[in-house]
Amino acid sequence: MLQWSTLLFAFFFVVSSFGQKQDLPESEVEFWDRVQFGGGAGLAIGSEFTSVSLSPQAIYTFNKYVAGGLGLNAGYIRERNFYEAQNYGVSIIGLVSPFPAVQLSAELNQTNYTFKYEDRMRFREQFWDTALLLGAGYSNGSMTIGLQYDVLYDYDRSINGSPLMPFIRVFF
Length: 172
Known about the structure:
Layout: H1 2-18, E1 35-46, E2 49-61, E3 66-79, E4 83-99, E5 102-117, E6 124-140, E7 143-150, E8 164-170
């Protein structure tokens, strides 16, 4: 655990040191000119299967190196005669671009999951899952492709199959 806390301290120290630089006087740049919107959406419909997800995000660009923001997520999955699941949550995201083509990220997600199993027992389960995703990616304009690693991943409890996840991030 000591190694992860040292790594997190170093990451946030670097983020805060970049955050001190201002490229333009605040009076020259309007607030909404620095806000970008993005996120993701998904839809899958099949024979006896449905999956819908929506995860909007908004970030504020502090300078050409640092951005931060908030995100929401919601989803619904159903496989007929087996299970139904809903989730909703919130995330805080920090982005650092030390070079034009490189984007580093830290994202804290808190998501509530509700599962209803439709077998003979009609079992229901509800829980909160916290994920701290540290990532790196290749950035080309408003799109970034990369990998994130969940440092809080618990093999027995986490909802994802692996702590390592690919991502595509787009902001407008």
